[in-house]
Each structure stands twice: as C-alpha cells, then as structure tokens.
C-alpha cells in the first residue's frame, strides 16, 4: 500500500467573490522511503498541494489517503493527532519560538502529544543534526543554518515517518543550504519518506524523484536522472544512530 495517495484532488478558493482553482485534478502516489522534490512557478499549486499533504488544508474534492487512512473523512481533532504522529514539518522561516532555547523548541511536538521523556528525545534529535552542544541557545544566538537544523530536529523528535519540507533552504546561502541538504539526504538513506518543495533546481537534483506543477496540475513526474529511488521502510529511531 502506498504511504501517500492523492486521487483527483481539486482545491478551489473563493476570494472577494472570485473563484480560484488552485488544484485541478491532481493525483500523486508516494511510496515509503521515497525522496520527492516538488517544483513549479509561483501560483502553480505546489504549496496548496503541500498544505493538503500535511493535513493543514482540506481538498474541495477528491480523496487523500495517508498510510491507509482516508484523511478526507477525519475531523479537526483526528487530523491534528495524525499530523503529530505521522508528519514532521520543516519551513523556510524555521518557525522557532524566539525566546525559547533550542531544546524546548524541539520538545514542542512532544508537549502537544503528552510524551513524558521529552528532554532525552529532544537531545537525541539535536544530536542527530549536530547541535547537542547548542541545546540551550536561543534562536537569536544561532546562525540561519543552525536554526534550520533545530527545525529539522523538531521534525524528527516524534519519529514520524514522513518529513514535509517547504523551501527549507530558501533563506540560506549556498554553502549552508548544502549542509542542510546533506542532513536531509542522510535521513533519506535511513529510510524516511521526504517531500520537499523548492524553487532551486540544484536542490531538487538531490532528490530521487521530481514532480513539477503548473496551473494547478502536475505536468511531469519522473525520477531524477542518475538517481535510484529508495523504496525501503523508515527505520524507527534511526536518526539517533
């Protein structure tokens, strides 16, 4: 069974009396362990697709199955529980609490889930991205690359099998972006499923598969040349090694 399966997804927004069709019959299947990059110009529908994949928005029509669960049938409470258990998020702007140390930012998903051993797991996640020694630093005391690594640790801490990364290198210089992508690639080798939105072709080239959007539709979906798709299963706790 596919880990992610979207079928004929439509999304229409109504803004100031104007109907905007953001997605027009999108179908997308992602298997466990795939590393998929999504590209497209502004307004192509890629961010709307990502929001639906992350259970942050609902489609107007069509079906979306996540790990065998029909997401379109869930209420808001069940959606929040599914997001916390199955999905880790990484955003372009990091989304860290500015007055909160790195370790407490990483602990946040565990706080929402009511997990008791939060400190130990947060330290392990920071260790996985090479920031254990910066655990008590505030975001303002960290570089942009370090802040993004904290965000990746926060995505890892629940041991969710899927990471959704929306322009994770968009605010970084090329050298720092490469360091962040090296971490993402290592997670992919451990068997995690990664879906990454990017405007940068050199970032997309590090994925296994490239999906391109235009005008609310998928215009191409093919393996990245020279890369083999990893079709494994996520390794529980693998990021701690």
Could you characterize what this model shows?
The protein is an alpha/beta fold and 241 residues long. Helix content is 31%, strand content 27%. It contains 7 helices and 10 strands. The protein has a 6-stranded mixed β-sheet, sandwiched between helices. 42% of the residues are buried. Residues 228-241 have low confidence and may be disordered.
Shape verdict? globular
Low-confidence stretches: 228-241
Major sheet = 6 strands, mixed
> What is the CATH class designation?
Alpha Beta
Gross CATH architecture: 3-Layer(aba) Sandwich
CATH third-tier fold name: Rossmann fold
* Average pLDDT taken over every residue: 90
Number of helices: 7
Q: For this structure, what is the CATH homologous superfamily?
A: P-loop containing nucleotide triphosphate hydrolases
């Amino acid at each position: 069974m596919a880990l992610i399966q979207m079928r004929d997804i439509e999304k229409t927004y109504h803004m100031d009396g104007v109907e905007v069709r953001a997605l027009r019959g999108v179908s997308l299947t992602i298997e466990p362990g795939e590393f998929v990059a999504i590209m497209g110009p502004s307004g192509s529908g890629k961010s709307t697709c990502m929001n639906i994949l992350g259970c942050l928005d609902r489609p107007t029509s069509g079906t979306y199955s996540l790990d065998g669960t029909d997401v379109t049938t869930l209420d808001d409470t069940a959606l929040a529980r599914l997001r916390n258990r199955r999905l880790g998020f990484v955003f372009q702007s990091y989304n860290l609490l500015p007055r909160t140390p790195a370790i407490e930012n990483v602990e946040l998903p565990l706080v929402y889930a009511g997990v008791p051993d939060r400190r130990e797991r947060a330290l392990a996640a920071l260790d996985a991205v090479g920031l254990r020694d910066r655990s008590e630093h505030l975001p303002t005391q960290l570089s942009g690359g370090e802040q993004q690594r904290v965000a990746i640790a926060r995505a890892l801490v629940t041991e969710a099998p899927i990471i959704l990364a929306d322009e994770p290198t968009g605010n970084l210089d090329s050298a720092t972006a490469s360091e962040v992508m090296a971490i993402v690639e290592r997670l992919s080798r451990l068997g995690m499923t990664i879906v990454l939105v990017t405007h940068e072709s050199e970032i997309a080239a590090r994925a296994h598969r490239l999906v391109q959007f235009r005008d609310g539709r998928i215009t191409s979906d093919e393996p990245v040349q020279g890369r083999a798709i990893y079709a494994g299963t996520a390794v529980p706790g693998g990021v701690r090694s």
